[in-house]
Amino acid sequence: MKYKSTRGQVSGLSFSDALLMGLASDNGLLVPESIPDVTDKLAQWQELGFVALAQELMPLFIDDIDPEVLKKLIAESYSSFAHEDVVGMQELGSLTVLELFHGPTLAFKDVALQLLGKLFEHVLGQRQQRLNILGATSGDTGSAAIDGVRGQKNVDIFIMYPKGRVSPLQELQMTTVADDNVHCIELEGSFDDCQNIMKTVFADADYKAKYQLGAVNSVNWARVLAQIVYYGYASLRHPEPSVFCVPTGNFGNVFAAYLAKRMGFPIKHLLVATNDNDILARFFATGTYARGTVHQTISPAMDIQVASNFERFLYYHFGQDSARLTQFMEDFGAQGQAGIGAPPAEALMSSVAVNREQTLAAMREVNEQFGYTLDPHTAVGYYAAKRLTEQSEEHSGAPVVVVGTAHPAKFPEAVEEATGSEPTHPTLSALHGLPKRSHPLPCDIEAVKAYLVSSLGAE
């Protein structure tokens, strides 16, 4: 399997090259040159556990790592998860929550980033190279990425997060990590500002090459690949094709579901659930992708108005026409909006925005009816899924799976407001009182570049 860029100027990359490149050198995103059809394998995959399914699926996309070595890396990646089968499935009446928060940092990002850390360590060791990771986080990516590579000798990681816009516990998960290869940057601005700085730095080809920069954000193809697995796993647990409702900020999680559907897994429909930062809901309603003001909400990981992985979806929507995709992205960059003429077909994907009151109501309802606690991001998905099943006859009989993205204890203030009780988790309780390390910076590209250079020089 080879990889190419959505922008059309990069092709023929091996998986390992794509892994280390992260963002494509033409500023596009890397995608596989073909999408495997697995429909003839579904019957034999139906009874596989999560790790076994990952070991069957990932070699379809990774053919430059020895199969036995890859199998071992996959098994090691998920050995630290608290659930016996890595992910859990919790029935709440007519809906099922796919629990993806049993990893070391209690967020769905662990499913991909534990593997990504192992892949980086293996490939860099084989090539005798090192990598400096520059990432942006709206909350969970940062801590999960840090946990995946902390202590590695051939990796330094620099994570930018927006000041005052991640939860206190999310900040503690990043800033209390004491390993020397971990650098946290508290940036004045929003997550979109952090993400824009990251992409702009990566676009400087000379700087990227000189300082051996790599990416852990969902712009990195390996992130998306790992996430495909849990959609395949969950879809094979129901006798009929499922509807997946995905709380969405940067579109990477739901894009993995889109690819799983294209591969042939039994997925009927994808519901993109957003909070008040509703750029995606507006796009699926109107066909226009228009940047808005970033709103601070109780589901901060979704406080995003420019969804970086959306480019991959548009690439396939445009029939893999790189010229059309590039023009669209240039128009969006210049004008803050671009359109496709008409909304995409609702048969495949639709979207709904969920506000603060609706989110809290969903958390309260689930707690009272089922004695189960939702974090505010999963609650956005739950509310959207309930609305879909109540209002759409087409989807009323299908299994509906809500993607559970984080443990509720990561957002105690929102949970307490909704339910009256504060959730806890021993992993998080242990962080209180630990010394914090972070470096405040203005929202300035040159300041970030200079900090990276000075940090590496100090080593």
Structure at a glance:
The protein is α/β, with parallel strands linked by helices. Helices cover 44% and strands 15% of the residues.
Largest sheet: 6 strands, mixed
Q: What is the averaged pLDDT score? A: 95
| CATH architecture descriptor of the domain at 88-107 and 221-424 | 3-Layer(aba) Sandwich
Query: What is the total tally of β strands?
Result: 15
Helix content: 40-55%
> Which geometry do the CA atoms define?
globular
Descriptive report:
The chain is α/β, with parallel strands linked by helices and about 450 residues long. It has a domain at about 90-105 and about 220-425: Rossmann fold (3-Layer(aba) Sandwich). The protein has 19 helices and 15 strands.
Give me some keywords for this one.
6-stranded mixed β-sheet, 5-stranded parallel β-sheet, alpha/beta, 459 residues
Write the layout of secondary structure elements.
Elements: E1 3-5, H1 15-21, E2 30-32, H2 42-45, H3 50-57, H4 67-77, E3 88-92, E4 95-99, H5 109-127, E5 131-136, H6 140-149, E6 155-162, H7 168-175, E7 182-187, H8 191-203, H9 205-210, E8 213-214, H10 221-235, E9 242-247, H11 252-263, E10 267-274, H12 279-286, E11 288-290, H13 310-317, H14 322-335, E12 337-339, E13 349-353, H15 356-370, H16 376-391, E14 400-404, H17 412-419, H18 426-429, E15 439-441, H19 445-458
Parallel strand pairs: 4-14, 5-6, 5-8, 6-7, 7-15, 9-10, 9-14, 10-13
Antiparallel strand pairs: 1-2, 3-4, 11-12
